[in-house]
Amino acid sequence: MAAQHVEIAAGGNADWSTPVRVDDSLLQASYQGIFMVRFAFADGRSHYLKMRIVGVDEMDNDGEVPSGFGALEFQDADGHRLRGRTDWYRADGADRGTWSFNSGTGKWEGASGKVEMLLNYMADDLDAELPPKGPIRFVGFIEGAGEIDAPGLSR
């Protein structure tokens, strides 16, 4: 199976640890999140997966996240896994990321590809001070499109 166009949409939440100040203008925090994700392929098939993400973000003194990264692990209802990485960045005033897929099990074995994502998020507590001084939960919606080659999906 050749690479196929896919549209991805996800909603969920991520918990940040207490940030550590890196310098006068930047903090860093680890995070872990859980999301429900839909992969809508160009051939009309949709796959729904649970996604777990673990990573590190940087936050400036205005509460913006200029960069971050994380490991992605998706699991479908059959227990098959898709793995990858996200690299977060800010561009044109928006939070964006590149999801790169590199391995999987079962129907996701041999999967590869890249998808450009757009992230919209807010603190669960809308009155929370940013940057936070302690742990904080964010809720978010992530969407994007790109190409994935998943040979196992055609079996």
Automatic annotation (TrEMBL):
It comes from the Bacteria. This is Uncharacterized protein. It comes from Pseudonocardia bannensis.
